[in-house]
Each structure stands twice: as structure tokens, then as C-alpha cells.
Write a structure and sequence with these properties.
The complex is a heterodimer of chains A (474) and B (351).
Chain A (H helix, E strand, L loop, with lengths): L1 H43 L17 E7 L6 H9 L6 E8 L5 H9 L1 E4 L12 E7 L5 E6 L3 H12 L4 E5 L3 E3 L3 H11 L4 E10 L4 E3 L2 E4 L6 H23 L10 E5 H6 L10 H15 L5 E12 L5 H21 L10 H16 L1 H17 L5 H28 L7 H13 L4 H17 L21
Chain B lengths: L1 H53 L3 H12 L3 H14 L6 H10 L1 H7 L5 H14 L5 H5 L6 H12 L4 H13 L5 H11 L4 H8 L5 H13 L6 H5 L7 H14 L4 H8 L5 H14 L5 H7 L5 H12 L3 H12 L4 H17 L3
The chains are: A alpha/beta (474), B mainly alpha (351).
């Protein structure tokens, strides 16, 4: 019996080591690919005048769709930022998804909205629309007021009202940089037939000064939970997503800022209203659709256009968000299980989906198992020192190295944190996140899985502080 | 033993972090130093360049400038590119002379680089400073990868001789996967001088998507001389081509096209109907008012939408017709559409 236990212990230990070695190696390779991607992108856009699109006689107009739910603190700044985007032809459609706070009233007051008799084609089924408003001061702005039906439903309502062939999904608490649309649309101009989606980098606005709808000063907040998230976002977007994009295996374009071809999205039936990770769901459905139609397609990730968004500042809200993301990931992967390891779906089915399934979906279990095993060894006084040292190097040291590489990528690409103090803070976050943050998130994600098994399908409320107050926690 | 491992682990992590932080700091110092040096150089060059631009003989001054600063290609390129943005016409001549005396040979060499990004970068540089007779270097790139090909094509539109126009049209006709969006912009920027080329192309047995683009261009560029060549596609079997024809006819504003458009308004495809009623609105022939009013009762949303705006284009008469339809109770969809068009027309002051 003891031998069997020892064998199991060794087997599980080895499994954990292999898991950490593989995940960190993958992320290391993604970082290397990202570096190549950043350098290539920089060369590709040298001497490009993004503004030349204004001189083009024929441009691709864009509908920017902003679903909002109880965003009274940040929605005005966000809409102002969108209306001040540099792009020749675009409309901004704000969908008030049955907010219970003063979101609509604030919009009406800030933009002098008047009820409009707009008639639209109901191509996608949504919850009833209570009214459509147009602004007398901002002709580009349309506000749709509807009964609450979750984010995906709000996006579908926006799609119904939109007029243009491309649509850009932006969160109600996000701020886009002025040239973001010009940059993210470029793949659609260079390869209009194959490009079906493109996304840019999401960064956290906590700790930054946002004035007149633009980030005026970039900074790092005092809150360590946000600091860890800043590093996480750098790792995910500059390392992971750009690297996966280089392998043409982008599985997700973030719902906070992504642009898509409307005809393809409509052909897939728009967003799935019941989905809680509607961005991943739509992206997968579009890819599945293109594969089934035997049409070549591309989804681009561009390391330059930046969208600033607000991150949770408390562990409770963070846990709610991550649990939802994890439930959404599992739900979507299960829904699209037919694509899994199916050569018909190309690299998305053969690489991206298995990667997400093994390292993102099942990963937290292995992590928690590893921490549990390690703790039990300490408790029972049976620490296997060679294993402990190997575990440290493979899991912690290698993982931290990959995190720190993301800081290096940020330095080589956008260089948005000019103060050495900020870099030092991020570096410290890279080390300190190993002490509690990573383990906490792993446990939260395991909890998310259990909630999925129990059939929980709620968004959970997100407490927003608004741009002006972000990063000023006591 | 465990405390030693933990301590050892943290020392390792601290060393790794410190190494990264130091690397970033040192890199920043090096970059800042280089930037300072470049800025000083840039300012000195800029001063000399301003003297060149205001000299009595700019060409001679430009030669002297090229001799003096030719050994600093990186900073010089930045200076030339930034001045290229602000200067136009004859004022560009000294910049071209400087380019020829300094960076041109490197640029030409790098146009043949195996790296796509470098080729692309140099095409863009070459576009800004090359002369029409140098189009031959760009023509060589017309068979490169799509992104380079399109950059070269864009460059050729700036050197629109008869020869380069021939290259552009031949390339489009033979392109197996044409980027229609980019070609549209290229043809549009070439303007009305493309008329004989479009006429010739419209008479060739090209695939429908290419013919569609030429038909579209005929309309957008207001090439009324191409009316007989365009109108024959009104009966073409390809739906997209009929849609484009209807749109082009609405833009050409040839009175004789009313009959053709009225026939297209009864096309079996609703997409063609929608475009035809919109074009009929642009033509503003009073005889077509009943056709548009009838189209407002179509079962297809887009046909109703375009018929509404088509009627609005008639001005007061159309607005009165829309008011009448908005008040009737038999077809709620037609009434709603008419009300929306009236609402929009009033908000934008279009009436």
C-alpha cells in the first residue's frame, strides 16, 4: 500500500513537473515569437502614414458598438474617447443594456440625446428595444436603450442598428487611443477578403490619469492586486496572444476591443446571447464558419493599437471576474468540442483548442494539485528535496522568467512606462505574484470549474470606480 | 534543508529580476544617449536644409548638403521623411536631389532584399522621392507579395504616365486574387484619365468581379462617356454586376437611364431592386415617383429603406409623399420607414 502511494506520489509529482515545464516553455516560445512579431510590425509600419486613409476616396466605415450596464461612472469619458477617434467614417452605437443606475440619464444629459424614430432590420433576435436616441451635438452617436439581456444580447442589438460593414466591439469602461481604429483597420484594407477579425492590446487604466476621454498620464497604482494584473495583461497580450497570432492560431479577440467583419458575424448568427464569454464564443464561431465554408481567413493581433480598461481592485471582484472567465472558457470549449483535434478546423482545432483545453482549462487543477502535494509533503515531513528544487526551477523560476520577459517585450515595443520606478514595481510584481496571487487565482479558477458543473451562468456584478478615481485606493 | 531551499530560491529570483532591471536601465541609457546625439545631428541638418530650401539656387545647395550629410543616412532619412510630409510640388525638388545623392543607392539595393518588411519600407521611401522615369524599379515589384505589390502600385499612381497606367490595368486584369478595395482607391485617385483604359477593359471578357469594379469606377468618376458600355450590363446574369450597374447609372445621371433603372427596380433580386430605387432617387425624374412610392411597400427592408431616401432626394415633393405614406395604416412597415426617413431628414436639415 505504501509502495503504491509512493508510486502515485512520484507519478503525480512528475506530471506536475512536466505540466509546468511545458506551459512555461510554450509561453517562452510565444514570447520569442512575439518579439519577432513586434520587430516585424515595426518595420512593416515604418514610413506608413496612418492618416493617409483620410485622403482615400473609398474607406471602410466602422460601427463602434459599446454595450453598457451600470457604467454611470465611466461611460461619458469612454464615449467621448470613442467620438474623438481619428477615422474618416464611423458611428458610435452605445447600447444601454437595461442599466439600473443613471447611465442613460447621464448620456442624455452629456450628449443632448433626443428620441429618434429610427427603423432597423431585426436580423438578430434580442430583448425588446425601449428606444433609440440620436444626439443633436454629435451626429456620429446613436444610443440604444433596451431591456437587460447580458452583454452578448446588447452587442446583437447594436449589430442590428449598425450600418457599416465592419464593427468594433468596445467595452463601456474602456478608452481607446486616438489612432487605435486607424491601426486596427489596416489588415482589413490590406487583405479585405481573408481578414475577418483583428484586435489590439488591452492595458489597465488604473493608476492613469484620464482626461477628456484620453489617457493623459500613464502610471502604476499603489494597489498590488492591480499591479499583478498589469503584469498579467502584459504577459497575456504581448507574450501569449501576439505569439499565438504569429502561429496563426488566434482563438480569441478581446471583447474590450476587437474589430470584425459584420457579414461573417451575421452569417454565424451574431453573438450567442447566453454566452458569458461572448468574445471567445464569437471568435470560435466565425473560425468554425469559415472552415466549414472552405474559405481562407485571417485573424490578426496588432501590437500597437491600445485600449485602456479598468481592472478590479479587490480580491472579491477579481475572483468573480476570473471565475466567470473560466466558466466561459469551459462552456465555449465544450460547446465547440467538435473542433477539438479535428484537422478540418486547421490550426485552430489542432493546436489552439488543445492548448487552451490543457493549459488554460485544466491547468488550474494541476497547479492546485501541485501546491497541495507540496504542502502535504511539508506537513508530513516528507519533503523530497531534489523534487522541491526541480519544482522551484521549473515552476517558479521559469514562470517568473517568462513574466519578466513580458516586461522586456513592453520595453521593446511600446515603452509606455518611462519611469524606472514603474519598471522596478512591475519587476517586483513578477517575483511577488508567486507568493500568493498565482495560487489564489488557481484556486478561484478551480472554483469556477465547480460552478460550471453546478450550472451557474451568471455574470456577477463588477464594481467600477470610474476613470477619475481609478488607482486611488486608500 | 527547506529554509535553505526557500532562501536559495529567492536569491535566484532576486538575481534574475535585478539582471532584467539592470538590462532595461542600461538599454534606456544607451538609447537616450543615442537619441540625444541624433537630435543634435537632426537640428544641425535641419538648419542646413532650411538654408537649402531658401537658397537662390536650391539644386546646387542640395548637392552641397548631400555631400556634407551623406554619411548619416539614418538621421537624414528621418529628416527627409518629416519634411516630405510638409512640402509639396516644386519645393520637393531639393529633397529629391538630396535623396539621389545620399540614400537612393541603398534604397534601390534594399528593394531587392529577401525580407518583405525591408522591401516594403523601401518602396514607401522610394515613392516619396523617386522621379517618374524611375518607375521601372517599381514595375519590377508588381509581381512581389501582395502587400509590396500594392505599395508599388500606389506609388505608380503618383507617376501616372500612359505607360504606368497600362501596367496598372494589365496587372489588375491578370491579378488572380485582386484586392478590390485597394484597386478601387488606385483607379479613383487616377481620375478621369482612366476612361479609355476602363472602356477597353469593359469590352474584354473579364470575370464579373473585375467588370463590377470597372462599372463602379465609371460611376464614381462620373465617366458619362462610358454609358453605352455600362448600360449593357443591366441584363447581365451576375447579380453583383447588375447591382453595380444600377449604382453607376445613379451616379452618371444620364437621363436615358431612367428606363433601364425602372426595369432594374423590378429585378428578381431584392439587392438589385434596392440599388435601382436609390439611383432613381438620384436621377429625380418625376415620372419615377410612383415607382419609388410603390417600392416603399416592398417586403424587403433594404428596398423600403432606399426607396424612402430616394423619395427624400426629390425634396419637397418627396417629403410630401413620405408624409402621406407615414400616415396610412395599411402597411405599418412602410409607414415606419417613411416616418424614420422624415425624422432623419429633419434632424440633418436635409429637407
Amino acid at each position: 500500500m505504501t509502495d503504491l502511494l509512493r508510486f502515485l506520489d512520484t507519478a503525480v509529482g512528475n506530471l506536475i513537473l512536466v505540466y509546468f515545464l511545458l506551459i512555461n516553455t510554450f509561453y517562452f516560445l510565444f514570447n520569442v515569437l512575439s518579439l519577432a512579431g513586434i520587430l516585424r510590425y515595426r518595420r512593416m509600419v515604418t514610413y506608413v502614414r496612418f492618416g493617409e486613409i483620410f485622403r482615400m476616396p473609398i474607406v471602410k466605415p466602422v460601427s463602434v458598438i459599446v454595450p453598457t450596464y451600470n457604467e454611470e461612472l465611466g461611460v461619458i469619458e469612454s464615449v467621448r474617447s470613442l467620438l474623438s477617434l481619428r477615422y474618416p467614417v464611423f458611428e458610435v452605437i452605445v447600447v444601454n443594456d437595461g442599466s439600473t443606475d443613471a447611465t442613460l440619464a447621464k448620456l442624455i444629459e452629456a450628449f443632448d440625446l433626443r428620441p429618434s424614430k429610427s427603423v432597423f432590420r431585426r436580423s438578430l433576435q434580442t430583448k425588446p428595444i425601449r428606444g433609440i436616441y440620436r444626439s443633436t451635438v454629435q451626429p456620429k452617436l446613436i444610443v440604444v436603450d433596451k431591456v437587460n439581456g447580458k452583454k452578448a444580447d446588447a452587442m446583437n442589438a447594436g449589430l442590428n442598428v449598425s450600418r457599416y460593414p465592419l464593427f468594433c466591439a468596445v467595452d463601456g469602461d474602456s478608452v481607446l487611443e486616438k489612432d487605435a481604429l486607424l491601426k486596427v483597420v489596416r489588415p482589413f484594407l490590406e487583405d479585405p477578403v481573408r481578414t475577418i477579425g483583428a484586435g489590439g492590446i488591452i492595458r489597465l487604466s488604473n493608476g492613469c490619469d484620464v482626461r477628456e476621454g484620453q489617457v493623459a498620464r500613464i502610471g502604476i497604482p499603489k494597489n498590488w492586486i492591480v499591479r499583478f494584473q498589469i503584469l498579467e495583461y502584459l504577459r497575456a497580450f504581448l507574450g501569449g496572444r501576439l505569439g499565438m497570432s504569429m502561429l496563426r492560431s488566434t482563438l480569441i479577440i478581446s471583447g474590450a476591443f476587437g474589430i470584425f467583419r459584420k457579414d461573417v458575424a451575421m452569417a454565424c448568427g451574431g453573438y450567442r446571447a447566453a454566452s458569458i464569454t461572448e468574445d471567445l464564443d464569437l471568435c470560435l464561431r466565425m473560425q468554425k464558419h469559415m472552415h466549414e465554408q472552405n474559405k481562407p481567413y485571417r485573424i490578426h493581433f496588432i501590437p500597437d493599437p491600445i485600449c485602456w480598461t479598468e481592472a478590479p481592485e479587490s480580491l472579491r471582484v477579481l475572483a468573480r471576474q476570473r471565475s466567470r472567465w473560466h466558466r466561459g472558457l469551459i462552456e465555449t470549449l465544450v460547446r465547440f468540442r467538435r473542433m477539438f483535434l479535428n484537422p478540418r478546423y486547421g490550426i485552430a482545432g489542432m493546436f489552439a483548442m488543445p492548448f487552451y483545453a490543457v493549459f488554460e482549462m485544466a491547468g488550474p487543477f494541476i497547479e492546485v494539485l501541485g501546491y497541495g502535494l507540496f504542502a502535504s509533503h511539508i506537513i508530513f515531513g516528507q519533503v523530497d528535496y531534489p523534487f522541491a528544487v526541480t519544482f522551484f526551477f521549473v515552476a517558479v523560476f521559469y514562470g517568473t522568467f517568462v513574466s519578466l520577459l513580458a516586461i522586456l517585450l513592453e520595453e521593446l515595443s511600446e515603452h509606455r512606462y518611462p519611469r524606472p520606478r514603474d519598471i522596478l514595481t512591475l519587476t517586483a510584481a513578477g517575483v511577488l505574484e508567486n507568493l500568493f496571487y498565482r495560487q489564489y487565482l488557481a484556486v478561484v479558477r478551480v472554483g469556477g470549474f465547480l460552478e460550471y458543473l453546478r450550472g451557474k451562468n451568471e455574470w456577477g456584478s463588477m464594481e467600477k470606480r470610474g476613470f477619475a478615481k481609478a488607482g486611488q485606493l486608500p | 534543508m527547506l529554509p535553505i531551499i526557500v532562501l536559495f530560491s529567492f536569491v535566484c529570483l532576486l538575481l534574475l529580476s535585478a539582471a532584467l532591471f539592470l538590462f532595461i536601465l542600461i538599454r534606456r541609457l544607451v538609447i537616450v544617449k543615442r537619441e540625444k546625439k541624433d537630435r543634435r545631428l537632426y537640428e544641425a541638418m535641419e538648419e542646413d536644409l532650411l538654408e537649402v530650401l531658401t537658397a537662390p539656387d536650391p539644386r546646387r545647395a542640395a548637392f552641397a548638403f548631400a555631400l556634407k550629410h551623406g554619411d548619416r543616412p539614418r538621421v537624414l532619412t528621418h529628416l527627409l521623411v518629416s519634411y516630405r510630409e510638409t512640402l509639396a510640388g516644386q519645393a520637393l525638388e531639393p529633397l529629391k536631389v538630396i535623396f539621389e545623392g545620399t540614400i537612393r543607392w541603398k534604397c534601390l539595393r534594399e528593394l531587392k532584399s529577401p525580407w518583405l518588411a525591408i522591401r516594403l519600407q523601401n518602396v514607401r521611401l522610394f515613392v516619396d522621392f523617386s522621379r517618374p522615369e524611375e518607375a521601372v524599379h517599381l514595375v519590377k515589384l508588381l509581381h512581389d507579395k501582395p502587400v509590396v505589390r500594392l505599395a508599388a502600385l500606389n506609388a505608380l499612381t503618383g507617376i501616372a504616365s500612359r505607360e504606368t497606367l497600362t501596367y496598372i490595368f494589365e496587372l489588375f486584369e491578370g491579378d488572380p486574387e485582386p484586392n478590390l478595395y485597394v484597386y478601387s482607391n488606385i483607379f479613383f485617385s487616377l481620375g478621369q484619365r482612366t476612361e479609355p483604359f476602363i472602356r477597353a477593359s469593359l469590352r474584354k471578357p473579364l470575370p464579373p468581379e473585375k467588370l463590377s469594379l470597372f462599372v463602379e469606377m465609371a460611376g464614381r468618376l462620373f465617366l458619362r462617356g462610358l454609358y453605352p458600355d455600362v448600360v449593357r450590363f443591366a441584363r447581365h446574369e451576375d447579380k453583383e454586376l447588375r447591382i453595380r450597374t444600377a449604382r453607376a447609372l445613379g451616379r452618371m445621371l444620364v437621363p436615358a437611364s431612367v428606363k433601364v433603372l425602372t426595369a432594374l427596380a423590378a429585378d428578381p433580386s431584392w439587392e438589385v431592386q434596392a440599388q435601382a430605387v436609390r439611383s432613381l432617387g438620384s436621377l429625380q425624374n418625376w415620372k419615377t415617383l410612383p415607382v419609388l412610392a410603390k417600392a416603399l411597400f416592398s417586403p424587403h427592408w433594404h428596398v423600403r429603406y432606399n426607396a424612402g431616401y430616394g423619395l427624400a432626394a426629390f425634396g419637397l415633393v418627396g417629403v410630401l409623399q413620405l408624409q402621406e405614406i407615414s400616415r396610412q395604416k395599411e402597411d405599418r412597415y412602410a409607414a415606419d420607414m417613411a416616418a424614420m426617413v422624415l425624422d432623419t431628414v429633419i434632424i440633418t436639415g436635409g429637407a
